[in-house]
Amino acid sequence: MSAREQSQSCAFSAASRSPCEAEEEAAAPGRCLSLLPWDRFSAWLHCVCVVGFDLELGQAVEVIYPQHSKLTDKEKTSICYLSFPDSNSGKCFLLLCHLKSVCKDPAYYYGYVYFRQVRDKTLKRGYFQKSLVLISRLPYIHLFHTVLRHIAPEYFVKSEPFLEAVCSDVDHWPPPVPGKTLILPIMGIIMKVNVCLFTGFPPPPLTIYIQYTQISIALPTVHEVDLFRCFCPVFFHIQMLWELVLLGEPVVVMAPSPSESSDTVLALVSCISPLKYCSDFRPYFTIHDSEFKEYTTRTQAPPSVILGVTNPFFAKTLQHWPHIVRIGEIKLPGEVPKQVKVKKLKNLKTLDSKPGVYTSYKPYLNRDEEIIKQLQKGVQQKRPAEAQSVILRRYFLELTQSFIIPLERYVASLMPLQKSISPWKSPPQLRQFSQEDFMKTLEKAGPQLTSGLKGDWIGLYRHFLKSPNFNGWFRTRRKEMTQKLEALHLEALCNEDLLFWSQKHTEVETVDLVLKLKNKLFQADREHLPMKPDTMEKLQMHIDTIILALPDDLQDILLKTGTT
């Protein structure tokens, strides 16, 4: 009997939702004093599904666990289609979930699939086909991939009771609180996980140690795919691809299987880290997707999205997209990859088109020959793939940092001076972002300070400032700086003698001050403002002192008054 099994993962993201937000929400149960059944499970997974194949009915969701998990019929249908290959690739893979019923705002969830196919003569088609699917808000690709590899083979032997035991183990996991090292036991193994958010500059990796009885296996990170392996088929065009992702250009990845499609799309999205990719991306997109018509129409320009596809049908229906990356089966080369020229889109007409990048895009920056030579040398010297990926990731990181540091420096200059913050006035506003003013700073404080790459940096910045990635980045930075101004304003208030102020003003003005201070205290706690540790305590002491100086009737009212 021959068997074909493989676990893969796929990440799916919407522009309105970031991995950071998903992690922060998932960690929220840890802040509660009491937890209800399945609260801990929900911090890691939304649900676990089993999708089977019936010769007459096709794919169908056979099991959803925990049983109280809700999925609409449309969502179940989507999961079914995306849990099985849509082409004759003979490979196995991943999934996309667009779940609207489980949260207030539509959001793409991450799906992780273990697909199993074994020959079974008792079935009409001659094969047993089934997928075990983990659905989560968290982008912990490597973690859930590892979990699936461990639990799926045994599940297909022991069925539902084993699945219940798995979910019970997850329900005993501590919440994924950033900055903490967690011990996660699951069906006989213990995983030691250091959870880190996608924040910081650069973001720290999330490392997992799988501990068996006498064996310890260290996995690189939970968020990342094997970068060098993914970019091997387009080895000489990594810098151009970095530009396309940075600028939020529409890109199609045509691959022989969902696993190659998924890994390549995830590698593209991650190559601009620590900058967040703010457009949509679909590691595995099929003809059954609800946005199929929108993405294949020729009456409007393709949206800012990276699509991963496997069905040969897309070679014609997506031919109008401006940038197409065609890859063959991903393998680590045993010899130095041969240089492949960028091909024109008109050459992508047949299903047997060769791997390569099909685009008319002209990069703004000159190609960095040093990184190409360094990676080529690594192939010749049989350097481990992990080491090659580290080199490539460091290169992308330094390139992105060189690009973003001038923007960070300019935006920091928009912050009002601390001396302009008065406790008796509203916090000052940030100055407006001026594209021309920013461009003027590049002459003396541009990327040339940290990067030796030559080219049209000015043109690249002008294009970037019109992209979704800039809008998302600037929106985040503006929010952070606004919160910092609010925090500085509260600290200025704490340094004032508020009791003395209240004694010089009427009771009405004093009550108004107390209500405003209580509201600011509530907002500061809710928004986690970046304040000094004792600021909140000092502010509360000011409020209590002022209230105690008021008449008894007002004290009773103010002590009972909440905040909004």
Question: Could you walk me through the main structural features you see in this protein, from its secondary elements to its overall organization?
Answer:
There is one protein chain. With 564 residues, the chain is an alpha+beta fold. The protein is built from 19 helices and 15 strands. The chain has helices spanning 19-27, 39-44, 73-82, 141-158, 160-170, 227-231, 238-246, 258-270, 292-296, 314-317, 369-380, 385-412, 435-445, 457-464, 468-494, 498-503, 507-527, 535-548, 552-560; strands at 3-10, 47-54, 58-65, 95-99, 107-119, 127-136, 181-186, 189-194, 207-211, 216-219, 251-254, 280-282, 305-309, 323-326, 356-359. The strands form 3 sheets. Strands 1, 2, 3, 4, 5 and 6 form a 6-stranded antiparallel β-sheet that branches. α15 (468-494) crosses α18 (535-548). Residues 1-24, 27-34, 88-106 and 198-222 have low confidence and may be disordered.
Helix content: 40-55%
Query: How many helices in DSSP terms?
Result: 19
What is the total tally of β strands? 15
Measured between the Cα atoms of the first and last residue, the distance is 66 Å
The global form is globular
Mean pLDDT across residues: 79
Biggest beta sheet attributes: 6 strands, antiparallel
Q: Please state roughly what percent of the residues sit in beta strands, choosing from under 5%, 5-15%, 15-25%, 25-35%, 35-45% or over 45%.
A: 15-25%
From the alpha carbons, calculate the radius of gyration and give it in angstroms.
27 Å
Structural class: alpha+beta
Poorly predicted regions are 1-24, 27-34, 88-106, 198-222
Organism: Chelonoidis abingdonii (Abingdon island giant tortoise)
GO molecular function, one term: guanyl-nucleotide exchange factor activity
Family: Belongs to the DENND6 family.
Domain UDENN: 46-480
